[in-house]
Amino acid sequence: MKNAKVKFIRNGIFLIFITHLCFISCTVPEQDGAGVLQPPIVPNVDIVPSIRTRESPPILGVSYIKTIGRIGQGAGEFLNPMGIVLDAYQQLYVADTGNNRVQVIDTDGHFIAEFGSFGWREGEFDFPTDLAINLDTLYVADTGNHRVQYCNLVNRIFYPIITTTDDYQFDAPEGIGIGRNGEVYVVDTLNHRWIQFSKILAPINAMGSFGSNRDQFWNPTDIVINAHGTVYVVDTGNNRIVSYDFSGNPTHTWGEKGSELGQFRDPKRLALDEWNYLYITDSGNRRVQIFTQDGGAVMDFTANTLLTPCGIAVSQKGQVYVSDTEAGDIKVFNVIFKKISTSDANKTE
Questions:
Q1: What is the DSSP letter of 14?
Q2: Of 111, 145, 108, nearest in space to 129 by CA
Q3: pLDDT digits (tens, 9 = 90+) for 100-114
Q4: Phi then psi for 346, rounded to 5 degrees?
Q5: Residues 307, 294: Cα–Cα separation, whole Å
Q6: What is the pLDDT of residues 4-19, one digit of tens each?
Q7: Exposure of 98 by Cβ count < 10 A (0-12 exposed, 13-18 middle, 19+ buried)?
Q8: DSSP string, 154-190
């Protein structure tokens, strides 16, 4: 009995050692093509957002922290950056629109990898404008090529989303969102609508047409879906935000042209934080506005050097990353929340 126990322990230690060696061997840095070793892109993991109701802490303010990147064509440089997204490991994926590529950087701006170049074949782009990540799959709005491409971050082979009927053909799509069950939502900008696809990328429905009525759009540019299935669309031409319930019924519409809080001039992108606050880049007013999930205006913020805010992403730690299209960089802000006492938090459980 004693010998069997010793043998079991030795076998267990050996398995742990072999597993550790395999993990190391699978994460060897890759060469970037110029003989320089680059750290690998870490595949995303399946993180399902909680739908449990929690009290949202009040936002006390937002402070500017730093700027990462600069204008250029090199590693960590950008030309007209637009959409950005954070993965589960806090790596930033940036639609480097003017350079017709996607760059991956860390939150300090250090270059990790890049995808694509100008062209029309798979893996090439013409004016990419937005990004989304679902597990280990990256989606790119390849606007100039009137398509959406996707790839697995392990093999990095791109494929276009294929629509078999004319009813779902894209015309300059600019926004992508991921649903709570892995559905893919695409803002079909010049068709003035959004299209929902299943997890296997089969079209489910299309919503919208040109106009200014409640169920119409004028050059929409972005879409996001919260954990409850609520859909938010940036209706850029109408200077407003439109929300839908999980069944596709319009629920709220807010905003109009102007510079007051709650008004917009050419809004571009939006993002949700873990408390379901909405962050919207109000590009014509050179600011970002924050709203509750029902459209209540909370506050706005900016920086002296923020010229044309476009893409936006919010980390779990409350850091906000805003791509500045005109400046060719990314501005970083920090959201300051009021702390909720334990007794107050328990009341919402």
A1: H
A2: 145
A3: 999 999 999 999 999
A4: -65, -25
A5: 28
A6: 444 444 554 444 444 4
A7: middle
A8: TT--EEEPP--SGGG--SS--EEEE-TTS-EEEEEGG
